[in-house]
Amino acid sequence: MLDAMSRMLPAVLAVLAGCVTTTTPLLYHGPVEVKLKERFRVMVGARHVGFLIFSQIADEKFFRIVTPSGIPVGEVHKYGRFFKWELFADRPRDIGFFTMKEGLAKLFETDETIRVFPLEGRGAATEAAALKLLKKALADN
Fold this sequence. Notes:
alpha+beta
């Protein structure tokens, strides 16, 4: 038996020598700047239901949708994928790809027409003005 153990010893040592444990230090890079690019009012009929906030972190552009009181409703990334925030959830739920108005209607759970307008002082209070501001913000770096 001692002879069998002595023959296994090199194999056991080879396996143990291959096990290496390392630690990776966490690097703190400081605060991340979030640039507010543009804000829009979201309306259902004559009712103001929230804001569409266009922001940028580094090279990533995205939209946040909040209620008039600032409660998060959802997010949209620049390619049109919508995410809905739900109470007590750790992360938003992916609800799919939509046009802006279709996605906003799904987030606000309405079948009525969604209209998006610029905030006061940011151009004419028309959907065309909102579209123009949105295109400009998307094109800016």
